[in-house]
Amino acid sequence: MSAPLLKVSGVDAWYGESHILHGIDFEVHEGELVTLLGRNGAGRTTTLKAILGLTGRRTGSIEIAGVQTIGMPTNAIARLGLGYCPEERGIFSSLSCEENLMLPPKIGEGGMSIDEIYTMFPNLKERRNSQGTRLSGGEQQMLAMARILRSGARILLLDEITEGLAPVIVQTLGRVIRTLKDKGLTIILVEQNFRFAAPLADRHYVIEHGHIVATVAKHELASKTEMLNEYLGV
């Protein structure tokens, strides 16, 4: 198999004095979709932020396409092709839907055009002139995802994108993620909704107390369901 696009080895991370990650190890190959599963507070979001350099101190090794990023600032890491969709979405209320969409800079070739994005998210085309605060929760989530698709990012870090959304919106996001995977994008998904994540992912990493405690490939799901239920409290 080719070298991983993202390789995380022995990563510890802190917020101030709080030691959150304790030797995280995992890897993702180009075109794969992997999930980070675990209970609230396990360290899943911190893992995404550590990859981006958004925690405080971090140690260990994080390589993106062979480039060691531990000593790099966040803006330089992003320009290696990372797009981050945070749990809080980060929509600017004073800007219109389309202004929010156009805000992030291009960080790579191959980003989707506005027309392609509006084809994928027709709701956003209808609301293109609406203020960010006037969008529904589902529309804000679509906008948060659409922003990083325009940027040319090739590794998408998606944090709890289905939380609090209606089932019909969740289904739409599932279709979008399948389309993005078919386009060859690499996706790391932090997700509480295991029913949403299970059919999408090539591999699941279970995090508990800042450690990877289990790795489950797609073909192992049936045989390891009981173990996953125990870890996740399903």
| CATH topology call of the domain at 1-81 and 157-163 and 186-234 | Rossmann fold
Our measurement of the CA-to-CA distance between the termini, rounded to an integer number of angstroms, reads 34 Å
Summarize the main sheet. Answer: 6 strands, mixed
The CATH architecture of the domain at 1-81 and 157-163 and 186-234 comes to 3-Layer(aba) Sandwich
* Percentage of residues in helical conformation: 25-40%
Can you put this structure into words, describing what you see?
The protein is α/β, with parallel strands linked by helices and 234 residues long. The protein has a domain at 1-81 and 157-163 and 186-234: P-loop containing nucleotide triphosphate hydrolases (Rossmann fold). It has helices at 44-52, 74-78, 97-102, 114-120, 122-126, 137-150, 167-182, 194-197, 221-232, and strands at residues 6-15, 18-28, 33-37, 58-64, 67-68, 82-85, 155-159, 186-190, 203-208, 211-217. The strands form two sheets. The protein has a six-stranded mixed sheet with strand order 6-7-8-3-9-10, sandwiched between helices. Strands 2-1-4-5 form a four-stranded antiparallel sheet, with helices on one face. β4 and β5 (67-68) form a beta hairpin.
